[in-house]
Design brief:
This protein is an alpha+beta fold. It folds into 2 domains: 118 residues, SET domain (Beta-clip-like, Beta Complex), CATH 2.170.270; 248 residues, no CATH class. The chain has 13 helices and 15 strands. The structure holds zinc ion (ZN) (3 copies). GO terms for molecular function: methyltransferase activity.
Length: 403
């Protein structure tokens, strides 16, 4: 058993403890002009989003930006987009030409050039094949997570032993792509937490001497997790609904845990090789399979699927306000992506993956805002079939068409 002090680090934020003051502040942070989050939506539903004023049919109830998002691995064969904001970069032919000419020689600095229609493309400074729409997206991605996750130039530009982290990251990516690519998103978020903890630790100790960094490290990691805290779930392997054809529940759950464990072991090896020397105690608090499993579970249950650029780009993202909305088989809002992605001033960060919740009918002041977790086809199914699809979310729908 670890003592209170030994646990420290991100372990502390991995639990589901919710202190009243924290939740109140957090929910206030999610308020928008027309909607607010309430901690008790009634009917045992937990949190919910409510209208603060009348919202007329066709109007936007609220907009939401992802805390973290990614393009699905398989979709990279259909669409070339900025790895951070998902802006379209060009055709696949443009991409091959760009990576071909910029390939191999990039090391230690990012390169930028114009492609196709004339938009600038910036390549990852680590030399992997990730590309960005501008230097700002490249820099933010690199600083916040990608420096820990970059797998470097593809075969040919790599010398064995240069960076063992590359080897582990490639294995990690291959494993994710052959099992569940949501592991990649969990890794991105995990890297953000680790980078933030280490950054604050470094800044804290250089400013105020050794031992003083832990407070700010904790507050920084906490603020990171603030945005997603309300969506925090039990580890993936323990919350997934048992498929009907599975008889041995323990066996099923331990297989899922093993899968997550294999994924996490590769990620851990990659991160460890890149974060330099940390004490055994720090290592213990940085690397927790339960935290990783909770992130996977949270993304599996709360993420919104992203479809952009005429459906060519498919991705997934965690949207804080959207994740607070309860389901109804007769929803009063529907989520849409920004139609005009050219909007916004140069330098303004505006992800293409921003969503708008449009009112499907007039919504009264104080009425709960609901969306459907099921797609249009699924909503046509019989009540019991719908309930069955909703099992993974851990509730029985009590909307007016279900009761
Ligand atoms: Zn971008
Ligand atoms: Zn890279
Ligand atoms: Zn229902």
């Amino acid at each position: 058993m670890a003592t209170e002090e030994e646990r420290g680090g991100i372990e502390e934020y991995g639990g589901v403890k919710e202190d009243g003051e924290f939740v109140r502040r957090h929910l206030e942070g999610l308020e928008r002009e027309h909607v607010e989050v309430r901690s008790n939506a009634g009917d045992g539903k937990g949190k919910g989003v409510f209208a603060r004023s009348i919202i007329e049919q066709g109007y936007v109830a609220f907009e939401d930006e992802p805390v973290i998002s990614m393009q699905h691995s398989a979709s990279k064969e259909a669409s070339w987009a900025c790895d951070r904001c998902m802006k379209r970069l060009g055709s696949l032919g443009d991409r091959d030409a760009f990576l071909g000419t910029a390939g191999g020689r990039v090391s230690g600095s990012s390169s930028s050039s114009r492609v196709g229609s004339g938009s600038a493309v910036v390549r990852c400074r680590g030399g992997c094949s990730e590309c960005y729409c501008c230097t700002s997206c490249e820099t933010v991605a690199w600083r916040h997570y990608h420096h820990l996750l970059c797998c470097g130039p593809l075969a040919g530009g790599d010398r064995e032993g240069d960076d063992p982290g590359r080897h582990y990251m490639r294995e990690f990516n291959d494993h994710a792509d052959s099992t569940n690519d949501i592991f990649r998103l969990a890794a991105r978020f995990y890297a953000m937490i680790v980078a933030s903890l280490l950054k604050d630790k470094g800044e804290g100790s250089s400013k105020t001497g050794s031992g003083a960094g832990s407070d700010s490290a904790e507050s920084s990691a906490a603020s990171f997790l603030d945005a997603i805290r309300c969506g925090w779930k039990a580890p993936w392997w323990s919350q997934v609904a048992l498929p009907h054809d599975v008889e041995d529940e323990d066996e099923f759950r331990s297989q899922l845990k093993e899968l997550a464990g294999d994924s996490f072991a590769l990620l851990r090896a990659a991160l460890k090789s890149r974060i330099g020397n940390v004490s055994e105690r720090e290592e213990g608090s940085l690397f927790s399979l339960d935290v990783y499993g909770s992130l996977v579970g949270m993304f599996e249950l709360n993420n919104l699927e992203i479809f952009l650029h005429n459906g060519e780009l498919e991705g997934t993202g965690f949207y804080p306000l959207h994740s607070m909305m309860n389901h109804s088989c007769e929803p009063n809002v529907s989520m849409f992506y920004e139609a005009d992605e050219e909007e916004g001033e140069e330098g303004d960060y505006s992800p293409c993956s921003k969503v708008y919740a449009y009112a499907l009918r007039d919504i009264e002041e104080g009425e709960e805002i609901t969306c459907s977790y099921l797609d249009a086809e699924q909503l046509e199914l019989e009540t019991e079939e719908r309930q069955d699809l909703l099992r993974d979310y851990g509730f029985r729908c009590t909307c007016s068409s279900c009761t």
